[in-house]
Structure formats: C-alpha cells, structure tokens
Design brief:
The complex is a heterodimer. Chain A is an alpha+beta fold. Chain A has helices at about 5-30, 40-45, 130-135, and strands spanning about 35, 50-60, 65, 70-75, 80-90, 100-105, 115-120. Chain B has helices at about 1-30, 35-60, 70-75, 80-85, 90-115, 120-145, 165-195, 200-235, 245-270, 270-295, 310-330, 345-380, 385-405, 420-425, 425-440, 450-470, 480-490, 490-515, 620-640, 645-660, and strands spanning about 385, 520-525, 530, 535-545, 550-560, 565-575, 580-585, 590, 595-605, 610-615. In chain B, strands 3-4-5-6-7 form a 5-stranded antiparallel sheet. In chain B, strands 2-10-9-8 form a 4-stranded antiparallel sheet, with no helix packed on it. The chains are: A alpha+beta, B alpha+beta.
C-alpha cells in the first residue's frame, strides 16, 4: 500500500468506529435521558404513566409519612401545584421538610409519583440547580 | 500578619509569573544564556512565593485564626489536627491555591530537572507554564482570595463540612490535582513544540515521564475519590457517572491515550501531530473539569462551593488556552515533519487502535456530560443524562479495547504477526473460555453478557501474564533461566504488564459486583436477622455515642457464617455534627477476602424499628485494587533506566571514567 492509501485506511477505520459510536450515542440520548419536571409542569404537560422523569420541588411541610416497613410518602410542591410521591428505601441524610428535593421515577396511573431514587446533596445550603431555577422562574423563591 | 504576608507573596507570585512568561518567550527568541538562566530562576521564585502563600494559609488554619473568612467558614477549634490541615483545601479558595501550588511545583520541577532539555524548548515550556500560572493566580486574587479577613474575629468557626472530615479528603484532592495539573507539562511541551515548529523523538522522551507521573496521580486520585464516595456517602455506589466524576475521567481517558501514542512517537517517530493534539486535548479536559466542578453549571451529587461568576472567569481561561492552543495547532501542525510508516498489524497499529477507542470513549463521555447543558441552552428543556446512557455508550467501546490489550505488547514494531501473537495467547484464551463456561454453569440465570464480561476480564488478566512470561521465555527455557530472564527485563515491561493487568482486574470487579451484588432495604429491630449472601447479619442494638465534634446513634451488627460461627462485627451510624447541625451516614463495611458486606442506617420508624440498607458487594475491592496495580505499573515504568532523570549523563560519566 502506498502512504496515502494507508492513511486513508486508518482514517476510514477511525471514522467508521466514530460513526458507530455516534449512532450509539444518538440512540442512547433518545432512550436514556430523563426529563425534569416541576409539579406545575406536570399538570401543564402531562406525561404518560411509566415515562421516567425527575420531579423537583420542595418537600411540603407536614407531608412526610412513614408507611409499612421502609415505604415513605411525601408531597413535592412548587407552591402552586403539588404531587404525591411514594418511595421505598432510605431517604438521603439531608432530606427535610421545606427543603429542595429531586425524585427520580415515573408517574403512576393514579397521578401520584413513584420514586426509585431521591436525591439531596451533601451540603445543607444546597438547592438542586433545576429546582432553584424553576422556583425562581415562578417567583416563589429568591435565593442566589 | 502572617496572613497578609501570604497574600503579598501571592501577589508577588502573579507579578513574577508574568515576568516568567515574557522572559521565557524572549529568551527563546534571542537565545541568550543569561536569559535562559533567569527564566529558570524566576520559575523557582514563583514556586517559592506560592509555597509561602500556601504555608501561611495553612498556618492560619493550624492556629484557628477565625479572623480569616476561609478559616472561619471551614474550621473549628474542636476538629482533629489532620482535618485542620486538610481543611485548607476542603473549600473553593484553598483548593484553587493548591491547584496553583501544584502547577508552579511542576514548572519548578521542569526548571530543575530539565537541564538536558534544549534551552529554547525549555524556556518556551516555562513561558507557557507561566502563562497558565498567571491566569490562575489572577483568578485566585481577583475572585477567590483565601486571605480575606473578617472585621470582627468570631470566637468559633463554622466547622469543616462533615462529609469532608475524613482521611480520604486529606489525600484525594492533592492526588487528583497532581494528575490534572501534571498534564499541564505535556500541554506546555506541545505548545512549545508548535511555537518552535520542530518536534522529534527526543521530545516524546522528555514528555513521557511527565505524562506518566500525571497519569499515575490521576489514576490514584480517581480511585481514591471513588472509594471515598463509596464508604463516606453511604449509598453503596462507587461510580455515579456524575458530571464531576466524568470531569476527572475524561482527562484520564485521553491521558491514557497520550501515554500510548507518546510511545509510538518515541520509538518510531510516528504519530507526531496526533500526539501533540492529544497533549493539548488532555490538559483542555483538565481545565474543563476545573470549570465544571468550580462553576456548578451541572447538577452533581458531589457538592462543591460553587459560584457562577467564578465559573465565568474559569470559562474565559479555558477558552483562551484551549482556543489559543488549537489555533496554534491549526497554523503550525502542517509544518511538522511527517512520521515513519507502519503496517496496520503492528505495535504501532495496536497503539493507534487503543488511541482510537480511548479518544472516542472520551468523546461519548463528553457528549453525555455536556448534553443537558447544551439542550437547556438551546431549547430550555431540563433533562439529566444518567448511568444508563453511559453504560450503553461507554461500555461497548471498552469491549474491543479489552480484547486488544493482550495482543498489543506481543506485536512487533513496524510489521507484526497476528497469528503468532494469537498462538502465544492460546492458553490465555483457553482460560477465558473456561471462565465463561464456569460462569454460565455456576450462575444459572445470570445474563450471558455477564459471563462474556467475566471472560473478557480474565482474557485481559491472563493475556498480560502471557506477555510477561513469554518475554521471560517460560516454556522454551527451564524455570530457573526464565526467572533470571524475568529479572533482567526492563522495568517498563513490568509497567505495561501491571497497567494492563490492573485494567483486567478492575473490569473483573466491575462486572462481578454489577451482576452478583445484592441490595436489601428493610426495617430491623434489635435481635432481627437477615441473610446476606452466605452470611447471616444480626442487628444487635442501637446506642448513642459522642465523638469530639459530633454525636451519633451507633447500630451494632454481627455477621455469622453458615454454621453459626461468628465472622465479624460491624458498626454503622447516623451522625449529627454539632457545629453545622448536619447529619451524615457512616456506613459499616466488612471486608471478606475481596468482597464486602456494606450496611447503612436510615431513619427510625414509628414502631421503634430502624430502616437498614444492606449490600453484598462481591469482589468489589478488585475495582480499586486494579487501579493500585496501574499505579504500580506507572511507578515501574518511571523507574525504568531509560527514563530516570540524569541516567544518560551518569552512563556517560561512567564511560568517561572507564576511558581514563
């Protein structure tokens, strides 16, 4: 092979792997991304039951209830709308009423949210960025 | 007083590093011996100034001087001494100062150990290092002054963030930074070469030890951080594909590629332009990582004191350096002489293969990390890209890489023989096949992918041994001869062996723990028992305990084996730090051979029971053990005679002595 052919072979091989990787990335971006919603978004743009999403807002005061065993119920609010959330497992250390929270899971048929992951960061001043942005947009929270 | 002295030293360092830039570039132009010397001396002085600034901040933390905002916010009189020290870099300002300290340390090392570098290259390198240092010192002084004072000194500090009060923090950030910032040297060498328009095999020989050292620290830093998050956060996870983790992983991927392409350049004079580009990309990823972590533009599970205005500053630094270097590359790359030729099936070909997959996988990680940011900017849609995305895209890219690992070192330079290499790998392949069959037989119901994954990991492990033992001539010679030959092999051969072995070991741990790990969440009362793998875990009691700066509820557990014999006891606790009123979970971890039982406590329920989360983590420690092997591999390679600092000089001196 000449030098040029060789280089073309290397570049061609590289490009085909790159194309395969790009196809995989595009496929994964279609399948595996999770949308972020606030309780008001959910009433405005309803999502199908079973569609994975992240629900963000504040934990409503007095709404945390322990069920049987390890199940927990609480209400996420953006002070306009509320959504009931059920979760089984251990809540993060910094999960508190009237604090920001992000729950990941899917909507159930009855309009409540079934979370399989509840996130709160390891910083007591922390407000998840999406939550802070959304609450600021709605003018209910003025933080930095 | 000492604090003001530190502040002054930092300002002086900024002024001097600006001088370093001008002097370095000027010296390279006029080629004046005194100016070359002056550049080196200024570099050393900059390092001394930053070190003095760092020492004075350390002194402030040490002596609990709460009139300094940084100390007030991140320290407390009651915290143990080690956390007073690590608290220096357990915050934004201090950690940026550490960044600058390590950067100037590397510049100083180049100045001291670069005696055999051509003067022009050396002063250009020091000038570029000085440019980076100036940018970051300006950043620290303008936006994140660690020496700012409070008008009225409080009596007590606000305490260090409890999650950071751990031995892991004392070493994780310095290691990570040594890696991140260490790649600046490769970057500066690349830019210097582009300015010069000249690059040769000797360039690669100088760059390789620096890259290797940076890679070693980064590997250790990432592994350390992963283990720290694993035991400290109490979530039982060791990698979350979180933006902040990806930020450190991307330079690791391209840094690994750089390490391999520099070998081709050093041995064969090929891949020159590509190696230059990789050096630029790797440090660009380090800068991007610093930006992502410090700006907080992406939601991360790991919290860092972040501030968008500071983020913007780093973004500007990032754009200037990455943009500048890439522009220079675009202008000058065509002037660089072409490298040698090689067949696709050859050592060079194998290393190109490695580079291709590593850089493409880095690109997929980059896509997944930045996609939410881009989408939000374009459409306002808020999304998150999590582990499933990365498992689906990054995972398949690692498969060909692991498959190729054993072949690489067995192929000859220029023209390799795949068939001969395959023959030498026969028994490694047989072992991998046995592993797959055993997996399919033992773990009925386990996905075929898991069996394949284990086979792949065993293939990489056995292949590394096949290469090393083949080089020792085991099978052809007697065992005694083989051992003698083994001890006579260059250290870099062991470096390759340990690096590749470590990859296989880590992969094995990842596959086993993801497939066979179990997780149970339940409520337990004292006396309750639960099965964990082949053990029984009993919850003994819950007792209050008071530490130096916290109070906690300790849950005591004990593990018993199949026949009821006691195996060990575990303590897991819910801790409340007094100064910040912040709760943390301290996981109880018990290691058996290479596997772990991991217990973390949740809240108490109304009927007096406690929520307990229990994981069985089979072979989980292999994940970090593999990283340790890789670090040892880097140490072995660094100690190779060829790379040792001044080795050629010593040899020459010995030759001169012999001649006399």
């Amino acid at each position: 092979m000449t030098r040029k052919q060789k280089r073309l072979a290397v570049i061609g091989g590289g490009l085909s792997i790159l194309a395969a990787a790009a196809a995989l990335v595009l496929f994964a971006l279609r399948q595996e991304i999770v949308f972020f919603r606030t309780p008001s978004d959910l009433t405005d743009l309803p999502v199908a039951a079973g569609q994975r999403l992240r629900l963000g807002g504040l934990v409503e005061k007095g709404s945390v209830e322990r069920g049987q065993g390890t199940s927990v119920f609480f209400v996420v609010t953006d002070t306009i709308k509320t959504v009931k959330v059920s979760y089984t497992g251990i809540l993060p250390d910094l999960f508190r009423e009237e604090q920001g929270v992000v729950a990941e899971g899917a909507m159930a048929a009855d309009g409540s949210f079934v979370a399989d992951t509840v996130l709160a960061k390891h910083d007591e001043n922390y407000m998840p960025k999406e939550v802070a942005d959304s609450l600021k947009e709605k003018g209910v929270w003025q933080g930095k | 007083m000492i604090v003001e002295f530190g502040h002054f030293a930092l300002v002086l360092a900024l002024a001097l590093s600006a001088a370093q830039v001008i002097l370095g570039f000027a010296a390279a132009r006029v080629a004046d011996v005194r100016m070359f010397q002056a550049t080196g001396n200024v570099t050393l002085t900059v390092f001394t100034c930053v070190a003095l600034a760092f020492a004075s901040l350390m002194h402030a933390h040490f002596s609990s001087d709460f009139s300094v905002i940084n100390v007030f916010e991140n320290s407390h009189t009651k915290i143990p001494l080690i956390f007073k020290v690590s608290g220096v870099w357990g915050n934004h300002e201090g950690s940026m100062l550490l960044w600058a300290l390590i950067l100037t340390l590397f510049s100083a090392l180049v100045a001291v150990f670069g005696a055999n570098l051509p003067d022009r290259l050396k002063s250009n390198v020091l000038a570029v290092q000085g440019l980076i240092a100036s940018a970051f010192l300006l950043f620290i002084l303008a936006t994140s002054n660690p020496f700012a004072r409070l008008p009225n000194a409080p009596i007590e500090g606000r305490d260090l963030n409890p999650v950071l009060q751990d031995f892991g923090l004392a070493i994780h950030p310095p290691l990570l930074y040594l890696g991140y910032v260490g790649f600046s040297v490769a970057f500066s060498f690349a830019v210097a070469a582009l300015i010069d328009g000249r690059i040769d095999a000797a360039w690669a020989r100088w760059v390789r030890p620096w890259t290797l050292a940076a890679w070693m620290f980064l590997t250790a830093g990432i592994a350390m951080g992963s283990y720290w998050a694993y035991y400290e956060l109490g979530w039982g996870g060791w990698w979350f594909w979180d933006p902040v983790e990806n930020a450190s992983f991307m330079p690791w991927l391209t840094g690994t590629a750089l390490l391999h392409s520099a070998v081709v350049m050093e041995k064969r004079g090929a891949l020159k332009i590509w190696t230059l580009l990789l050096a630029i990309i790797t440090f660009s990823f380090s800068l991007l990582g610093t930006f992502l972590v410090r700006s907080g533009v992406l939601t991360s599970v790991h919290s860092f004191a972040s501030d968008p205005s500071r983020g913007l500053f780093i973004l500007v630094i990032l754009c200037i350096f990455v943009g500048g270097a890439l522009t220079l590359f675009a202008l000058r790359a065509s002037q660089i002489e072409q490298g040698g030729l090689f067949q696709p099936i050859s050592r060079e070909g194998a290393l190109v293969f490695n580079n291709l997959f590593l850089t493409i996988s880095a690109a997929t990680v980059l896509t997944g990390t930045l996609y939410p940011l881009i989408l939000e900017a374009l459409t306002g849609q808020k999304i998150s890209v999590g582990a499933p995305f990365f498992n689906l895209t990054f995972g398949p890219l690692m498969v060909p890489l692991l498959m190729a690992i054993p072949f690489g070192p067995l192929l000859a330079w220029k023209r390799g023989d795949l068939f001969a290499a395959g023959q030498r790998l026969m028994w490694a392949f047989a072992l991998a096949l046995v592993a797959v069959l055993v997996m399919l037989y033992v773990a009925t119901g386990a996905p075929i992918l898991a069996a394949f994954g284990v086979g792949l990991a065993i293939w990489a492990i056995a292949g590394s041994f096949a290469d090393l033992l083949g080089k020792a001539g085991l099978g052809k010679n007697s065992v005694g001869v083989a051992i003698t030959r083994l001890s006579g092999l260059p250290r870099s051969v062991f470096g390759t062996f340990l690096g590749h072995l470590g990859m296989g070991v880590t992969a094995l741990g990842i596959v086993i723990v993801s497939v066979f790990g179990t997780e149970t969440v339940l409520t337990m009362k004292p006396g309750d028992k639960v099965e964990v793998a082949s053990y029984t875990l009993t919850f003994d009691d819950l007792t209050p305990f008071t530490g130096p700066n916290y109070s906690e509820l300790q849950g005591a557990f004990h593990l018993t084996g199949k026949d009821g014999e006691a195996v060990s006891t575990l303590i897991s606790s819910k801790r409340q730090y007094i100064a910040r009123g912040m709760p943390t979970t301290e996981a109880g971890i018990d290691t058996h051979w290479l596997s772990q039982v991991y217990v973390s406590l949740g809240d108490n329920t109304d009927d007096g029971a406690t929520v307990v989360r229990i994981w069985w983590k089979p072979l989980v420690t292999l994940i970090w053990f593999g990283a340790v092997l890789m670090v040892f591999g880097a140490v072995a390679s660094l100690s190779d005679r060829r790379l040792r600092v001044g080795a050629p000089k010593a040899a020459r001196r010995a030759a001169a002595m012999a001649a006399q």
